């Protein structure tokens, strides 16, 4: 559901096949689902598709995201590698499974603290 630089319902609905703003809004605001179960399912699928003891590798990646204002959870002054300086932002650690030119996130924070 990568929708370019803007991550909002309208941008996502443009790249997700057979959906619209109303369906996505319903899914995001009212549907009951467990984020941990979804991540575990993605990790199992990734392992089945590209997991290989000899060629695949898990990678932990710390990523920082610049943020302005006070409305983003976990936003405060951090060293942000991408900017090369201390600035207001969020920092999280992601787990990624990599094999050759294929890579997929297999774990990420449920929230930022």
Number of strands: 4
Whole-Å distance between the termini?
Answer: 24 Å
Q: What would the principal axes of the Cα set say about the shape?
A: globular
Low-pLDDT ranges = none
Structure description:
This protein has 113 residues and is of the alpha+beta class. It has a domain at 55-107. Helix content is 28%, strand content 32%. The chain is built from three helices and four strands. The model has no long low-confidence stretch (mean pLDDT 83).
Keywords for this structure?
single chain, 113 residues, 32% strand, alpha+beta
Topology:
Layout: H1 9-15, H2 21-29, H3 35-50, E1 57-66, E2 76-80, E3 85-99, E4 102-107
Antiparallel strand pairs: 1-3, 2-3, 3-4
């Amino acid at each position: 559901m990568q929708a370019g630089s803007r991550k909002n319902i309208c941008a996502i609905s443009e790249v997700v096949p057979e959906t619209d703003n109303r369906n996505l809004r319903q899914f995001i605001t009212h549907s009951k689902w467990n984020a941990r179960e979804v991540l575990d399912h993605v990790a199992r699928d990734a392992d089945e598709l590209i997991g290989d003891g000899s060629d695949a590798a898990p990678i932990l990646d710390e990523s920082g995201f610049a943020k302005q204002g006070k409305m983003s959870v976990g936003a405060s002054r951090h060293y942000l590698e991408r900017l090369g300086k201390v600035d207001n932002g969020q920092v999280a650690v992601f787990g990624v499974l990599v094999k050759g030119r294929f890579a997929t996130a297999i774990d990420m924070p449920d929230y930022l603290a």
